Amino acid sequence: MSSRAFITGISGPTLTTEEREFIRSSRPWGFILFKRNAESPRQVISLLRELRDAVGNPDAPVLIDQEGGRVQRLRPPNWPLYPSGADFGVLYDRDRELGLKAARLSARLIAADLSDLGITVDCLPLADVPIAGADDVIGDRAYGNEPGKVAAIARAVTEGLEQGGILPVLKHIPGHGRALADSHESLPRVENPRAELERTDFAAFRPLADLPMAMTAHVVFSALDPAQPATTSATIIREVIRGVIGFQGLLMSDDVSMNALSGTLAERTRAIVGAGCDMVLYCNGKLDEMREVARETPELSGQALERAKRALASRKPPQGLRPQGGPGGTGRVDGSGKGGGRMSAEILSFETGRPAELSDDEPSLVVDVEGYEGPLDLLLALARQQKVDLAKISILALANQYLEFIEAARKIRLELAADYLVMAAWLAFLKSRLLLPEPPTADGPSAEEMATALANRLRRLEAIREGSNRLMNRPQLQRDIFPRGNPETIAEIRHPRFTATLFDLLTAYAAQRQQRVLASVHLAKRTVWSLTEARASLERLVGMAQDWSRLDEYLINFVADPSQKATVFASSFAAALELVREGEMELHQKEAFAPLYFRKRPPQPASDAMTAPDLPAE
């Protein structure tokens, strides 16, 4: 049955009716789980069965982000916490082989958790090489800041996953370490030249080019494509991912719903497929968005289909956990129980890489029963190897000695008492299986296999415990260690003091009010007595006035409206001056601000002597 080239998430711990119908009709290639989808092992197993039934493919790949540290979707109390990638980098710097062994073991244990649930793909390892000042979206998830170191640890993680039957996904190709922004929130841009990128960021991915699957980075590399992030850049996918790095496996996008990408989900999906990605990844689990992505996703065909087939075919069956290596080696425990080696003492210590023995100041349970005298853990190891006759061991005597020991041990360390309780219980169980053997046809593991499984669990428990203790005891920033060169913060304390007077406040208030007041000024149209009208009136008056007459007494007859008095007087005075200049009339005034008198200019006598006019009395 054909599939569409997308991987989808779902909304919760169970499939809704609408989601089931969507999966049946849209046929996604695979699924991805998040914390919202995982409540308990039984629930996850049931959910995966529902997903595969709905899509009609019992082998449909199911992905998850289970890195360790702050990025792991399966969390306590149902699943253990694992160290972050940076922790393996620290161990690698101290002891290269130790760091690689720890990374491989952690990945192998993660693979065991996933395999038990039916999950087949883990989005791990990371080959990002972070730089100082980069955004914390990668941070302690990275294995280091040197390409060779990052590639070596990523290879060890890949081996651990593959030994557990889990397919790895290399991310975030071609590199997210230089991003100065979180691509979940915005689009990061990297401005470094291509030669520098090939020497650092891309170099960490080249040794891992043989991995079956990889996930792109929503990051713009301006030296390669200044317009598009790697996920939607045909140039970067062709020249860098497929070219410089040499990756030829199945290439999937990072989450299409992240804010680093622009446009609608439909536009983003078309851009991802058009750029050369084989698979579109959608994570949010919103049904309307799932449908939008599915509508724009093509059928899986051509080279993309061949890469998908090769990726799934590369998955190997889980290998057993069996002890390997020389004396004191940590190794693994095989489910067949046929591997030799020590048991509870061979527990990986994240601090030393050697078998973790009890500390000198802690008590050990030394039993003295018929047929054996010595430490309890050694007794269990000998019983597993059939080097001691359990039929001669008195379980009652063993229980009494344990109860005496536990009274003292639990005051020192409760975990120590719990470990011995598990060992004693297994001894009792092994003897019960010896005394009451099951019929030869009975299904289930043998006593030897169950003892081997216990050894594996004890190793795993101690590894997790040591790792968690180491994480909790790490120096804390600003308490135990302090970064150099950071400026000290200066506390700024403000004490407001008001000096404005009431007048200042009123002035400011008035100014603000004045800015908001809409002033509307209406100018009344004034009636103006023109100069032409005034001249015509004066010419008529001059023709009648042969003797001196007051100008204002004459003009008052023309003022019908008191508001026109000023314009009548002004126009008449101007007209009178024009007539005087033309020789038509005479004006006279006794003193400043005295009334003006006028008359028609009489003929001039022969003598040029000027005489004062004989004005009428006022």
What's the layout of helices and strands?
Elements: E1 4-8, H1 17-26, E2 28-33, H2 41-55, E3 62-64, E4 66-68, E5 71-72, H3 85-94, H4 96-117, E6 121-122, H5 147-163, E7 167-173, E8 189-190, H6 194-199, H7 201-205, E9 213-216, E10 220-221, H8 234-244, E11 250-255, H9 265-275, E12 279-282, H10 287-296, H11 302-313, E13 366-369, E14 372-375, H12 376-384, H13 395-412, H14 414-435, H15 447-472, H16 502-516, H17 531-544, E15 549-550, H18 551-555, H19 565-582, E16 585-588, E17 597-600
Parallel strand pairs: 1-2, 1-12, 2-3, 3-6, 6-7, 7-9, 8-10, 9-11, 11-12
Antiparallel strand pairs: 4-5, 13-14, 15-17, 16-17
Q: Any overview of this molecule?
A:
It is a single chain. It contains 19 helices and 17 strands. β11, α9 and β12 (about 280) form a beta-alpha-beta unit. It starts with a strand and ends in an 18-residue tail after the last strand. The relative contact order is 0.07. It has 3 domains: about 5-315, Alpha-Beta Barrel (TIM Barrel); about 320-435 and about 445-475, no CATH class; about 530-600, Orthogonal Bundle (Arc Repressor Mutant, subunit A). α1 (about 15-25) packs parallel to α10 and α17 packs across α19 (about 565-580). It has about 625 residues and is α/β, with parallel strands linked by helices. The strands form 5 sheets. An 8-stranded parallel barrel has the order 1-2-3-6-7-9-11-12, surrounded by 5 helices. A 3-stranded antiparallel sheet has the order 15-17-16.
